[in-house]
């Protein structure tokens, strides 16, 4: 049987090549294609403080800069609408999207007016779960996701969350008060932090089940070089030797109440709204500084510089600063990974999309997964996964997102020092991405 480490290493190298972006300002978003469905992602890159394990584009909150940013974000949305895009679904991530609630409400209402958005998912932090959030977002947001990460007070202290967001008990109480107001309420948990053990994970799962959440996303710690350095200083060295055991324990514990929606998302029946917007939609448009778009086989990345972002938008230019055109083989591999992460690959749909059976498209990949014992079924209709196969997809997605985080690292290092994260390691040159 092929060892997990071989899959991990191979895919880490492949992802590094796949996500090797070309720095290039593209002043216009590609036009939409007839008959294609797209999802809209909006990025809000402001936080009250910065977590050491996070690689997303984020800046310490400054109200003046944030309000200027929201104004530019709305203008970029209008530019996207003029290109002819429509969206059924909006996903708002960060950073902390709820950092300025009045501005967030305007973003959601504008998306409905411009694009006909019907379903909204939004992220938030535990300290924002209050009556005002419920009053403003419950009528507008179908799925609210809160980054709990852990209920363990010791771990919350070590990852710089206890003082900002409260104890595990306080977070649980806020979740229990807020969850009933939303059609779908997700809590994020992270496993495989340095020093984390099965007892801590078991307690997190037990409290998550008591929280009233309709969905739990339990994903492994995904590190980039800057994240690993930060964690080594504050928490400890990241190890992967117990990751599979932890994942198996999570699946066993949560499967008694929830059903798997993806390899790491667990939903109550009828309440599934998938957390990863790149999984739910084959193609998507990202608006905001540091957002990603995937359109017609090309990955596009908006500038991570707030100054460049606002300048380009004010000039009616798309704020795209980097791109990577995927080969047809790359597109097929990407689709293969995303479909299987969603637990089922529809072979007939594959043949309609790519013009030939998957066996002719990815023979080596299919052979490798079969040898690894990943497939529960592989017939004329579909491919589904064994428990081992699900974990292998967790490994692949961990490496894929870690590679994206490395792209974010590179982009942040290129941000002008006046915009950096007040961290000497990030105060580097002034390239555009």
From TrEMBL:
Q: The Radical SAM core domain covers which part of the protein?
A: 32-260
What InterPro entries does the annotation carry?
A: Aldolase_TIM, Coproporphyrinogen-III_oxidase, Elp3/MiaA/NifB-like_rSAM, rSAM, rSAM_sf
| A single GO molecular function term of this UniProt record | metal ion binding
Quote a single Gene Ontology cellular component term: cytoplasm
Q: Is Oxidoreductase tagged as a keyword?
A: yes
Which terms does the UniProt entry file under GO BP? porphyrin-containing compound biosynthetic process
Superkingdom to which the source organism belongs: Bacteria
Q: Which PROSITE patterns match?
A: RADICAL_SAM (PS51918)
Tell me the SUPFAM superfamilies matching this sequence: Radical SAM enzymes
Its keywords, alphabetically, are: Iron, Iron-sulfur, Metal-binding, Oxidoreductase, S-adenosyl-L-methionine
Please name the NCBIfam families in this protein's record: PRK08629.1 (NF006385)
Protein name, as recorded: Heme chaperone HemW
